[in-house]
Amino acid sequence: MIVIELRAGQVSFRFIGNSRIMQRGSIPWLAALAGLALFVSGCNGGELSEIELFFKFIRALDPKTVLRIEWSRSLRQPCSNQWNVVVRCKMVSLFGRPVTEIRLQNLNLSGILDAETLCKLPILCVLIFAKNRIRGTVPDSIADCKSLMHLDLSNNLLTGSLPTVALSKLKNLKRFDISDNHCGSTDPQLNREARRVGKYWLVSEISQANAISKGEISNKRYAFSPAPEDVSHGKQSSKNDDNPRKHWQSWMVVLAMGVTFVLLLIFFTRLKAVQAAKDTEITRELALSLSPPKSPHVEIVVEEKAEERHSELVFFIEKHERFGLEELLEASADLRWQGHCSSLYGVRLKNNATFAVKRLKKLQVSFEEFGQTMRKIGNLKHQNILSLVGYNSSKEKKLLIYRFQNNGSLLTLFNDYIEGKRNLPWKLRLSIAIGIARGLNFIYQWPEDGEIIPHGNIKPSNIMLDEKEEPLISEYGIAKFLVSNKARFFNSSSYAAPEKRLTEQADVYSFGVILLELLTGKFAEMQKNGLDLPKWVKAKVREEWTGEVFDKEIEKFEMYGFSLLNISLKCVSELPGDRPSISEVLEKIQEVVTAQEDISSSSTNSVESI
């Protein structure tokens, strides 16, 4: 892997050998390795992906966009080497390369540390933000960076007290540099030592012998060592080296390093073999899930010892549209997106037929319930809902198969519009709005058995566009399996309703936010300042600056825009009871479409009569 580093405007390249990290629990005996922290994130459907977490953190750290990092539809992971920053990743499996290291020193960054977002990166080990102008405090949420080993915040403008209790929870932290800031600590002894060493580095060493009690920082030992360019304290260092206890500790460190090296050698040898077997199994399972049926029936069910393990493969397309195992093995597969508990692949067969395969894992749902729901969704057919081609369900993971949409998603369209690559005319905006409304209305009118499944995750990235740019609602039915912890599922979405529930009213709220985006040209999850779009629009309306709400592209259609604005504001009402039903929303939008068509028709007839 090639790592690009930018320090003080100079670019350098380094080559790093390939390595992999096995998830916790794969090899239990490795738990004894000191300093080797293996972390596995919980699976919550509403959590941001790594690229979204990284982008959100950078927005807070770099409000002046010194790094010139912009959101783009082509961004799939932080380690894509598309920016002049150091973001180092390691291969965990065939499906991902989580971030392990971020270095952003001497770049004049002037924002704050959004540790709450940053620490959601599961195996982040090294953070170097030295020699910037970072403001604010070191937040308590830094305690969530469980794998952190090296934290350098020196030479910044940080203030306030150090979160000593939070720091004491970082069991893997080996080095912590907070020199040349304006921070203090609630630990008097630590403050005295920090003043005495001046420009020395502050190095935090966790005492493995003493258990941390009451969360106090005094249960850690703090040592101070000079920065590489500082040699003014050499004599003091020599005195410390003459301490017999210091020599004894040094020998113990050497011995520990030797033992660790041997264990790591064993670990990586076995890891290579286990990972190879795992990759083979994943590839085999993906191929099996897309294999053709062995009978002319639409459904193919394969069960293996029902009392031990369930597995089934079901298609909802005609036999002549299916594809064989050999075709799949020869096909090209491209990882399009990866989140904490799902991944999306584009698969192109030799006949150029393309499919999108979504891989779900660790769902809190029984085999029977998942199959029952997917069969119901597979039979749902509407021009504004992306049809499910088929699915594979097993104990370990689930695979959903859709037809690949070359025009991408509504998020792709928004991004292209912002970058000036594409126009977003009023006619297309109106077509997208009424198409989404029709699809949602069908979801809530369709069930014959009375059981309604809310969508729960309406947002631009889940609205696909077909070859005619008609909107297609995707990922319907998935959210109900991803909300075992509903608060965590909804808390990261700019489109989630305040009540954070799976209901029709919540879907109406999400649609209202998208409708506001179409009217304003401002897109909720792309705003650098974290704009709350519904609040921003409501404030403009209260101040009687309604005309400033609309995007410049639709100024000629304000008479229709005001009608849609009233609809969208009702959709994003704080209280669920104040929102209209989706059928009422569709009716109002249809009135706008009809009115515009009547005027257009009248204008055409007038021209023809002349």
TrEMBL record:
TM ranges: 248-268
Coiled coil: none
Entry keyword annotation includes Repeat: yes
Main location: membrane
Compartment(s): Membrane
Gene Ontology molecular-function annotations: ATP binding; protein kinase activity
Gene3D superfamilies, per the entry: Phosphorylase Kinase, domain 1, Ribonuclease Inhibitor, Transferase(Phosphotransferase) domain 1
Keywords of this entry: Kinase, Leucine-rich repeat, Membrane, Receptor, Repeat, Transferase, Transmembrane, Transmembrane helix
InterPro entries given in the database record: Kinase-like_dom_sf, Leu-rich_rpt, LRR_dom_sf, PRK1-6/SRF4-like, Prot_kinase_dom
Domain Protein kinase, chain residue ranges per copy: 330-593
One Pfam family here: Pkinase
GO annotation, cellular component aspect: membrane
Keyword Transmembrane: yes
Name of the protein: Probable inactive receptor kinase At3g08680
Organism: Coffea arabica (Arabian coffee)
